[in-house]
Each structure stands twice: as structure tokens, then as C-alpha cells.
């Protein structure tokens, strides 16, 4: 800490000291370093999920540079010479031929290809799981809404990166993926055909798409991702990390370990472990053996082909939509709602939900404060329920993207499976919301129960008068604090429709709508135990800890939504 | 930064998030839990043992790196899939050992030997203070004043016009070139012409009607010279022109959409799905159903290839066929509608 902040009076003697002095005299870097070196970071395993995404991206860059040295993104036709024997002498694009060469001729090339592919899958998975952590703990609340938006953009960019990379080898599978993309683009009203020409430089497949995707994949998207990662981490440091609730953790402090040494060492170690896992996967788990599929040819297609997992939801969405939705509008124009709805509107709605959620929640909570202590998911049942409903919709669509495999694997009718998924897509999320919310409320009640009555010890005591009781051990204050330190939010209170003179108030209807939404969020809630309630519970008798639960009104419903009176 | 301090103590008037005095009907924050020393903090022998473990882990990493070099130089893949697999597994596992060694050593070091003392750091409001905001507002006001733009509205218009227009100089050449000739009318036609023979895909051998047995299915391309099939234009043409040919018992054909479109129970339909354009390739003989493996649109070949299930709406376009003098199957014309997925001006 002291080597980098030199004072003009003490001449540095060590090499590090001298370099630091040199640098600082020119950059004032000491000021910045002072902020960072011993900056306190809270510690929790779930804070590592974002690191998985970040470090997978670093591995993607490293392995990607290796691949770029040997890949030739050209769609010119060539006759392949060399391994593998099945492809020797075949006519194919230079892109596919160079993919074969880097797998078979370049030593370590196949390893790097497989590491790159696995890293991409883990990268997107890391982002999604990290987003789940942020969502369910309410880490997106003020002042971090902007960083949530940056993160959501990063998630979408990661899909773009994955898709553009998947298409590069120009094999049968990726070619068919591009063909589906072309079909989706053409479904866009008015400009669809022209957009298809814009993307492919003419008719599908043409000769331009692979070089274009290559530029997108190795320049545009990674540059954007890098820039946004920079913003993401800058905002994280600026806002300081959130922390889980617990003793001594408030919205005005941050409790944890200094960046140097323990935190940075763990983070660095984590990078090597993640890289190690990816190397192990790349070394031992074959992925995308393009030589088994062959070069792109518009005619063949293999049954049971699956896109990478993060594209499955789009694939499933396309599979579920009934064809009847394609309509011909006035003037004989074709509106392909059978493609537009599942491939553009559904994902659009899912992403929109992610973008607007923090602002909607803040609005229905009537909340303008900064939040740095995370919520336990059970303490915000509506949010947790909505998150699970969202994931349910996503998973159902992804499963629908594998309906052919489910059909062949379990010997079921594909038509039946498709119909089941069609219904589940609407029913599943609603049911998931309802059950999740109930579970959260149940857990909150259990917390109350624990705080009021303590842990069951299993010790049964018989008194002289013949009475049996089970001894309960009260919670220690840390255990109790975790369970009582939350706010049971209430539905918004709004101003009445007319003021005291009976004049209609502007904006009342809008307020009323927000209040309705607010009720949906916060009507059912479980209040935390207050010291008075705990005292009352104890006052029931020195030894009798088993008083019935209905003594205390736990689940409050509806109150607090009345309009304020003048 | 203060060590392990309980910031508010145990009194009931504590501060919460936004600095207001909290209600007293809430429990008091018990403060940061007591710090428990680890075994290595109190027992020098445990610390020494951990030091040894960490050193061994780093050593394992070095061995992994050496192993990966050995694998690189010793195992030369011979161009066969098993050979390449062996090299990949050895290089991958050695690399993983080299990385795991460093990773686990670092984490173990941090968890056992580096200080585990928790620190408490104050947070400050995320916004800047009122004074700063005022200063900044004043600065912008001064800047605007200095620029004089408020007094010179002509300049305001001029600068915005110039800035808004200049991207056109880049965007127009880019956008107009990027779509090739923009002739989207090409979607309408394929290379099928009257008299063009049907040929097997990929061999290119013309198909004799008598060779097609009832119940059989053939993947078909137009009969063009072999050298033409080795150009890139061919792939783009093939992407529209591929056809699936099925011979049914003529009695099974439920109806015929176009007079003379089929020949003696032989029907030819575009292989490009009318949903999003995958090749429709799975034919089921018993039901005469044709299934698209991408999104499971199902077409009934015996009934004009109309959709019986799935996300496609329209039947597959039919290629009208007949036989020439030598008994080879040939096209009577191009498809009478655009093949493949729908688009806005498809019916125009």
C-alpha cells in the first residue's frame, strides 16, 4: 500500500518503489490506487457467479486469438486435401476447410476450438446465473439500476457473440441455423426481404455472410462487450458491492475483506480454476465435430439437431407457434405472425421485462432510497415469484426446442408434446408464480415461528404436575437479526380522487393503476417480529413455549391500501 | 476504515438506510459477528502444513505445464480422429492440471494464511453534494454563455444540420452496397425451366420415371452440367431449387392441385419448408407425411403437401413434372409461386 504512494521527501530505494515513483510523478496514479488497494469487498459464494462470466470471457479472448490465427473466413469453394479422410477431396468453402485444418493439422487446435466452444456456453450460463442472483436479491435497486441495464445489454451481446461464432465453420448445422435466421428476417413486415439482402449481400446464402459474421464476431461484438464490461465493473467499484444482510451490515457501510491481498488472491485463483475447468472440458468433452456434419449444402439436414443451449428458447418458441397465424393483410401483403410472434415478439417481451423491471418495482414500492443490503428472496415474495415465472417460461421454451429429442427419447408423440408445451407456456409461469409466492410466505412464517419460539431441541421435559413440554432454545441475536431485519413493503397509498373542495385531481387514474399493480406486489405480506411480539410470546409462561400460532396476526392482507384522508 | 466496530452500538435509536431515526419497535442491530481465528491463525504447525500444501499445489502446476509440453512434442496426431483426440485429451488435461495447481494454491493461500479479519468501510451517498451540483450547473451556464449560441440561433441550426447530415456520407455508400443488387424479385424464381430434367442429389444422374418405385423417395436437383455445380452461384440456386420426389400409388393421391402436375403417382414438391426454410427431409411412407426436422411442420404429400401440423401455414410448392421422349422425368415449368418462407410482398 505504501510503495505506490510516495512522498517527495523520501526517495524510493527499491525497484518497485522507483517504478511507482516514476509512474506517479506522471499520472498521479497514487490517488486511484489508494482507493482500490484496500477497498473492502463483501464475501459470498454467489458474488463469484459474475466472475465465472468474466473469466470465461477472458478464456474466450485467449482461445479466440489462437483460432483467428488459423481460420480463413472465406466462402470461396475449394477442394479439401488432407485429414480427415472422409472429407479428403470434397468440395467445400475455404472457411470449412480451414476449420478442418485447424482441428486436424494444428496441434492443440482442436483443444482450443473445444475450449472456445465450451467457454461460450459457460459464458452465457455464467451471465444468466449471475443475473438470477442479482434479480432475486434485489441488487438491481437504486443506485444500481443503470448497471442492471448494462448487464442486460451484455447478456444480449453474449447471445450475439455466440450465434455469430456458431455460424462461422460453414458446416451443415450452422448453415441451416443461418437459413432459419434468414426465414425469420424475411418475416419482418415491409422491410424483411431487403433486410435479408442487407444481411446476406443478396440471396441466401450468397458469398458474404461468413466474412461479415467473422467481423461481427471478432471485432464488433467483442469490442462492445469489452467496453460494457469496463462500464459494468467501473459502476460496481463506484457503487461499492452490495452485501447480504447480517449483523453490522447496513445501507451505510460495507463489511468484508480488503481487495489486497485476500480478495484479489481468491479472485485470481478463481480465474485459474475456471480456466482449468474449461481446459478440462475442452480436452475431454468433444463438442461440435463439424467433420461429421460435412460442409454446408442447402439440401441435407439431420434430424435431432440442436442449437447451443442459449438459442434453444428461440427454437422452441418457433416450434410451438401454430402455422394458422400467418395471415394475408389488405393489399395482398403477407404478415407471417407464425414467425414474427415467436421469434421477434416473444423474445422482445422477455428482454423488455428484464429492462423495465427495476423501474417498475421502484415505482410500485414508492421507493427512492439507496439499497446496499440485499434482500433475502423470501422477503419479497412477488419479485421472487415473477423471477421464477420468467425462468419457467424460458425453460419451457427451451424444452420445446428439444421436443423432437424428448419424443424419440421417451417414445412419445411429438404432436402431443408440442400441445403440452403450448399449454404449459401459458399455465406454467402463472402456476410457478403462485407456488413460489406461497413458498416465500411460508418461509417467512417459519422465520417468525423461529424468532418467537426458538429452535426445537428434541428435549421433552415432564413436570411434577404431569405436564410434558418440549424445551425450545431461543435464537442468538445474530440468528434473530437475520430474520427480523427486513421491511414488509406495503401497497402504495395515493391521494384521493378529489381534493378537499371536491375538485377532480389530475393524474388520479394513473395513480390508481399503479396502486393496483402495487397491490399485486405487496398485498400479501408477512411482517417481521417486533420486540413487543417477542416479549409477549415469552410472557406466555416461563416454560410454555408452545402457544398456538394464531395468537399473532401474521399474514396481513389488504390493509394499508386505503387512500389518505384529509 | 475501522476494524470490527459495531457502528451503532446496542441502543434502540439507530440509523437506517436513509438516515432517518428508526422506529423503536424494531430489533437493534447486534453488530458484526465476533471474529473467530482459524486453526492456522493460532497453531503454527497448522500454518506450516498449509504452507506446504500451497507449495505442493504450485509444484503440481509446474508439472502440468511440463506435461503439456511433453504431450505437445511427443504425441503427433496422425490425421485420424482417434489420433487427434488423444493429442487433445493429453494437452487439455495437462493444461487443466497446470491451471488448477495455480488456482487451488491461490485460493488455499487466501483462505488459510492471509488475514481473515473483516473490515467495515463507510458508504457515502451515490450522488454528488448540492454544492457540487450548483457549481456544475453554473459551469454549464457559463460555458453556454461563453459560446454565445443562445444569441446566435443561426449557428445553432447550422451546427445541428451539419452534424446530422455528415453520417449520410458514410451510411449511404455502406447501406446501398451491402445488399448487393437489392433485387428481391429473385425470390420469385428458381432455375427450373420447362424441359429441364430431374436429377438425383448429389450425384447429378437424371431420373427415369420407370426407376422410381411406388413408396420410394428421392432428393432431386435440376440436371445441370457438373462444372456448373462447382460454383458458388450454384449453392445459392440450389438453396431454392431442391425438390423432394415421391411416388405414391395414384389411388392414394387425394386430389391434384394442378392438371398434369404429377406423373403416374410421382409428385415433386419443393424441399424448402414454407415456415423458415429448412430442408424438409423426413418422409413417412405409411402416412405419406413429410416432416421438417427443424420445427416439425408436417405436410401431407398425398394431399397437395398441405400442412397437417406445426408452425408452417402454406403447402409446399409443387414442381409440375412429366416425362420426356426417353422416359426421363422433366419439369414442365418453374414453381408457380415463390418457394421457402413467406415474406411481405410474396403475393405481389
Automatic annotation (TrEMBL), chain A:
Which reaction(s) does its UniProt entry say it catalyses?
a quinol + 2 Fe(III)-[cytochrome c](out) = a quinone + 2 Fe(II)-[cytochrome c](out) + 2 H(+)(out)
* Domain Cytochrome b/b6 C-terminal region profile: residue ranges: 246-442
Any one GO cellular component localisation term in the record? plasma membrane
**E.C. designation(s):** 7.1.1.8
Locate the compositionally biased regions of type Basic and acidic residues.
539-553
- Classify the protein's membrane topology as the record does: Multi-pass membrane protein
Q: Where's it found, cell-wise?
A: Cell membrane
Query: Which positions, given as ranges, span the membrane?
Result: 48-71, 115-136, 148-168, 214-238, 271-291, 339-360, 380-399, 419-436
The protein's matches in InterPro entries, at most eight in alphabetical order, are given as:
Cyt_b/b6_C (IPR005798), Cyt_b/b6_N (IPR005797), Cytb/b6-like_sf (IPR027387), Di-haem_cyt_TM (IPR016174)
Q: Does the keyword Ion transport apply?
A: no
Q: Which PROSITE patterns match?
A: CYTB_CTER, CYTB_NTER
Q: Name one GO biological process term.
A: respiratory electron transport chain
Picking any one GO molecular function of the record gives:
metal ion binding
A UniProt-annotated Pfam family: Cytochrom_B_N_2
List, for all copies, the residue spans of the domain called Cytochrome b/b6 N-terminal region profile: 19-245
Q: What PANTHER family has UniProt attached to this entry?
A: CYTOCHROME B (PTHR19271:SF16)
- UniProt name for this protein: Cytochrome bc1 complex cytochrome b subunit
TrEMBL record, chain B:
**Does the entry feature the keyword Iron, yes or no?**
yes
Residues annotated as domain Rieske: 240-330
Residues annotated as transmembrane: 53-74, 86-107, 158-179
Cofactor(s) it depends on:
[2Fe-2S] cluster
Extract one GO cellular component term from the record. Answer: plasma membrane
What InterPro entries does this protein's entry cite? Answer: QcrA_N (IPR045603), Rieske_2Fe-2S (IPR017941), Rieske_2Fe-2S_sf (IPR036922), Rieske_Fe-S_prot (IPR014349), Rieske_Fe-S_prot_C (IPR005805)
Molecular function (GO) terms listed? Answer: 2 iron, 2 sulfur cluster binding; metal ion binding; monooxygenase activity; oxidoreductase activity, acting on paired donors, with incorporation or reduction of molecular oxygen
Annotated segments matching region Disordered: 1-44
Please give the chief subcellular localization of this protein: membrane
Q: Which residues lie in Basic and acidic residues bias regions?
A: 11-44
Q: Write out the entry's keywords from A to Z.
A: 2Fe-2S, Cell membrane, Disulfide bond, Electron transport, Iron, Iron-sulfur, Membrane, Metal-binding, Oxidoreductase, Respiratory chain, Transmembrane, Transmembrane helix, Transport
What is its membrane topology?
Multi-pass membrane protein
- Keyword Transmembrane helix recorded: yes
Q: Where in the cell is it found?
A: Cell membrane
Q: Which family does it belong to?
A: Belongs to the Rieske iron-sulfur protein family.
Protein purpose: Iron-sulfur subunit of the cytochrome bc1 complex, an essential component of the respiratory electron transport chain required for ATP synthesis. The bc1 complex catalyzes the oxidation of menaquinol and the reduction of cytochrome c in the respiratory chain. The bc1 complex operates through a Q-cycle mechanism that couples electron transfer to generation of the proton gradient that drives ATP synthesis.
Name of the protein in its database record? Cytochrome bc1 complex Rieske iron-sulfur subunit
Amino acid at each position: 500500500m505504501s510503495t505506490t504512494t510516495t512522498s517527495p521527501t523520501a526517495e524510493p530505494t527499491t525497484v518497485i518503489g522507483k517504478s511507482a515513483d516514476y509512474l506517479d510523478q506522471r499520472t498521479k496514479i497514487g490517488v486511484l490506487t489508494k482507493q482500490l488497494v484496500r477497498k473492502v469487498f463483501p464475501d459470498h459464494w454467489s458474488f463469484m457467479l459474475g466472475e465465472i462470466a468474466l473469466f470465461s470471457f477472458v478464456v474466450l479472448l485467449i482461445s479466440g486469438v489462437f483460432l483467428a490465427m488459423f481460420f480463413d473466413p472465406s466462402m470461396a469453394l475449394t477442394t479439401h486435401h488432407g485429414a480427415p479422410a472422409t472429407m479428403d477431396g470434397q468440395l467445400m468453402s475455404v472457411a470449412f476447410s480451414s476449420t478442418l485444418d485447424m482441428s486436424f493439422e494444428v496441434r492443440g487446435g482442436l483443444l482450443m476450438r473445444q475450449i472456445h466452444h465450451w467457454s461460450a456456453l459457460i459464458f452465457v450460463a455464467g451471465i444468466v446465473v449471475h443475473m438470477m442472483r442479482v434479480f432475486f436479491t434485489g441488487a438491481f435497486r437504486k443506485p444500481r439500476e443503470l448497471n442492471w441495464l448494462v448487464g442486460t445489454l451484455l447478456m444480449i451481446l453474449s447471445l450475439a457473440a455466440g450465434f455469430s461464432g456458431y455460424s462461422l465453420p460453414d458446416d451443415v448445422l450452422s448453415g441451416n441455423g443461418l437459413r432459419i435466421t434468414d426465414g425469420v428476417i424475411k418475416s419482418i413486415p415491409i422491410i424483411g426481404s431487403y433486410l435479408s439482402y442487407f444481411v446476406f449481400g443478396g440471396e441466401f446464402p450468397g458469398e458474404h455472410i461468413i466474412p461479415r459474421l467473422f467481423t461481427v464476431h471478432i471485432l464488433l461484438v467483442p469490442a462492445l462487450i469489452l467496453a460494457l464490461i469496463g462500464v459494468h465493473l467501473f459502476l460496481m467499484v463506484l457503487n461499492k458491492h452490495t452485501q447480504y444482510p447480517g449483523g453490522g451490515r447496513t445501507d451505510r457501510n460495507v463489511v468484508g475483506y480488503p481487495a489486497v491481498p485476500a480478495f484479489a488472491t481468491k479472485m485470481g485463483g478463481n480465474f485459474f480454476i475456471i480456466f482449468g475447468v474449461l481446459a478440462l472440458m475442452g480436452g475431454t468433452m468433444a463438442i461440435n465435430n463439424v467433420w461429421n456434419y460435412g460442409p454446408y449444402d442447402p439440401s441435407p439436414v439431420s434430424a435431432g439437431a440442436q442449437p447451443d443451449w442459449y438459442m434453444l428458447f428461440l427454437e422452441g418458441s418457433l416450434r410451438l407457434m401454430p402455422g394458422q397465424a400467418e395471415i394475408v393483410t389488405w393489399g395482398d401483403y403477407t404478415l407471417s405472425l407464425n414467425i414474427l410472434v415467436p421469434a421477434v415478439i416473444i423474445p422482445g417481451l422477455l428482454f423488455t421485462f428484464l429492462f423495465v423491471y427495476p423501474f417498475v418495482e421502484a415505482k410500485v414500492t414508492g421507493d427512492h432510497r439507496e439499497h446496499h443490503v440485499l434482500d433475502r428472496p423470501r422477503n419479497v415474495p412477488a419479485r421472487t415469484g415473477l423471477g421464477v415465472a420468467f425462468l419457467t417460461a424460458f425453460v419451457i421454451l427451451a424444452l420445446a426446442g428439444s421436443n423432437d429429442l424428448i419424443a424419440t427419447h421417451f417414445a412419445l408423440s411429438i404432436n402431443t408434446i408440442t400441445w403440452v408445451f403450448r399449454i404449459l407456456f401459458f399455465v406454467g409461469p402463472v402456476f410457478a408464480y403462485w407456488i413460489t409466492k406461497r413458498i416465500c410466505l411460508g418461509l417467512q412464517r417459519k422465520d417468525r415461528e423461529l424468532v418467537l419460539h426458538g429452535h426445537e431441541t428434541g428435549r421433552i421435559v415432564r413436570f411434577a404436575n404431569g405436564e410434558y413440554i418440549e424445551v425450545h432454545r431461543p435464537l442468538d441475536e445474530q440468528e434473530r437479526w437475520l430474520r427480523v431485519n427486513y421491511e414488509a413493503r406495503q401497497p402504495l397509498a395515493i391521494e384521493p380522487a378529489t381534493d378537499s373542495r371536491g375538485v377532480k385531481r389530475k393524474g388520479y387514474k394513473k395513480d390508481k393503476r399503479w396502486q393496483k399493480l402495487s397491490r399485486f406486489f405487496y398485498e400479501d405480506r408477512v411482517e417481521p417480529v417486533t420486540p413487543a411480539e417477542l416479549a409477549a410470546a415469552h410472557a406466555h409462561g416461563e416454560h410454555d413455549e408452545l402457544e398456538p400460532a394464531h395468537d399473532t396476526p401474521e399474514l396481513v392482507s389488504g390493509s394499508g391500501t386505503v387512500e389518505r384522508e384529509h | 476504515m475501522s476494524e470490527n466496530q459495531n457502528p451503532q452500538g446496542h441502543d434502540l435509536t439507530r440509523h437506517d438506510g436513509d438516515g432517518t431515526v428508526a422506529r423503536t419497535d424494531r430489533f437493534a442491530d447486534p453488530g458484526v459477528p465476533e471474529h473467530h481465528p482459524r486453526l492456522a491463525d493460532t497453531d503454527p504447525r497448522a500454518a506450516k502444513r498449509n504452507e506446504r500444501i500451497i507449495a505442493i499445489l504450485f509444484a503440481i502446476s509446474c508439472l502440468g505445464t511440463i506435461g503439456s509440453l511433453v504431450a505437445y512434442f511427443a504425441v503427433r496426431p496422425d490425421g485420424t480422429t482417434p489420433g487427434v483426440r488423444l493429442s487433445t485429451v493429453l494437452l487439455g488435461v495437462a493444461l487443466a492440471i497446470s491451471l488448477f495447481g495455480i488456482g487451488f494454491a491461490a485460493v488455499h493461500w487466501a483462505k488459510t494464511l492471509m488475514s481473515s479479519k473483516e473490515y467495515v468501510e463507510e458508504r457515502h451517498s451515490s450522488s454528488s453534494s448540492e454544492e457540487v451540483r450548483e457549481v456544475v450547473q453554473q459551469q454549464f451556464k457559463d460555458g453556454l454563455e461563453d459560446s454565445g449560441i443562445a444569441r446566435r440561433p443561426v449557428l445553432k441550426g447550422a451546427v445541428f444540420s451539419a452534424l446530422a447530415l455528415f453520417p449520410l456520407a458514410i451510411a449511404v455508400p455502406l447501406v446501398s452496397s451491402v445488399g448487393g443488387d437489392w433485387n428481391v424479385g429473385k425470390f420469385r424464381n428458381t432455375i427450373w425451366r420447362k424441359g429441364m430434367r430431374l436429377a438425383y442429389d448429389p450425384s447429378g444422374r437424371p431420373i427415369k420415371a420407370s426407376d422410381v418405385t411406388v413408396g420410394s423417395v428421392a432428393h432431386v436437383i435440376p440436371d445441370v452440367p457438373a462444372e456448373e455445380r462447382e460454383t458458388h452461384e450454384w449453392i445459392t440456386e440450389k438453396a431454392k431449387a431442391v425438390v423432394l420426389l415421391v411416388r405414391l400409388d395414384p389411388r392414394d393421391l387425394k386430389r391434384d392441385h394442378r392438371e398434369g402436375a404429377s406423373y403416374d403417382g410421382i409428385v415433386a414438391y419443393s424441399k424448402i419448408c414454407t415456415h423458415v426454410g429448412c430442408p424438409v427431409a423426413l418422409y413417412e411412407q405409411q402416412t405419406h407425411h413429410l416432416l421438417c426436422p427443424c420445427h416439425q411442420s408436417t405436410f401431407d404429400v398425398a394431399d397437395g403437401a398441405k400442412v397437417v401440423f406445426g408452425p408452417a401455414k402454406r403447402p409446399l410448392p409443387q414442381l409440375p413434372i412429366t416425362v420426356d421422349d426417353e422416359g426421363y422425368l422433366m419439369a414442365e415449368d418453374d414453381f408457380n409461386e415463390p418457394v421457402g418462407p413467406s415474406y411481405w410482398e410474396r403475393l405481389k
